[in-house]
Amino acid sequence: MQTSLKQFGVLLIQSLVFWVLAFLLFALIRYNGQKEELAIFIDEPLSLPTYFWYHYALLIGLIIGVFYAIIEFLFETFLNKRLILGLNVIIKTIIYFIFIIASLSIISIFVEDQLDINLSNDMGWWRESKLFWNIVIYFLVASIVFSFIKIANDKFGRGTFFNMLIGKYRKPQEEERILMFLDLKDSTTIAESLGHTIYSQFIQDCFLDLNRILNKFDAEVYQYVGDEAVLSWNYKNGLKNSKCIELFFAFQNQLQKRNQFYNATYEFMPEFKAGLHAGKLMIAEVGLIKKELAYHGDVINTTARIQGECNVYNESLLISEVLLNMIKLNSFFITNHLGEILLKGKQSKINIYSIKKAYSI
After folding, report:
1. Domain end (from 129, 156, 183)
2. What is the rounded CA–CA span in Å between residue 100 and residue 330?
3. Residue ranges of the Guanylate cyclase domain (predicted)?
4. Where in the sequence is the domain holding 324, given as residue range(s)?
């Protein structure tokens, strides 16, 4: 519940900022210089303060911003997985269309009082109103832009889309990152039992639960590979309050909360294993078709190898000594030194530790 409210809060802020700016821009385009233009044709044009229309643009932006956030949140939470995309778009378009008619009808009453004039706001007034259709077309275009930004941000991850937009990674950039390789336990057995169709739905649900907690722990998804997810943090976010470790146990708790669903739907309770490591790597844009950010560096291979040792030691979470020394662990965690290990494909040995939670908090 708390996570859902936080997600709605973020969506609400984004929606308010976007729609207020969008309608202020609409007012600027449509009404800026109108008084001077009318003076050419009319001896006594309607005298209005320059800020008059901006007040109503701000009001419309706030109203639509709140309503838009509510509708998008409700659809994302309850309906998106149940409705096909086409039907989803049609229903939302009808809702927004009705809402715009109602909003402009109410606002026109206030405009009448302010200007002491009669505006056409009787039943069906919108059919012949050019201003109404201008606003509808503008709303649809702006809505497409908002959706495009949101889809791009979801596709590339928080902040990554903006970095790609400004060309930050056109040339490879060196960064210090924390990586987590997160993999499903006994995936082969589960896949053989469920079949590839149901197994794919099983993985979808697992990663949906993972996505519900990512923002809380400031984690970024580098990529999904089959039944494996690769997560990433910059040092500041990942080390703060041991977020890179806390996420793993929060994910376990999230799955456990839904154990009835998994057991009833798939007759399997998902369990994941993970490896954590940190170091310098290169980040660069790759490809022209299906462009994406790629991580290059030894830290990636090492993290994958650490995660692979989970089966050897029958542990759920392993971490390198390099990263462990950076983190200030609290008393809720128990670490166990497994030794200096020569990982497959590596020249030198590396110290790894297992991490468990001492008790629930």
Report:
1. 156
2. 53
3. 178-307
4. 160-357
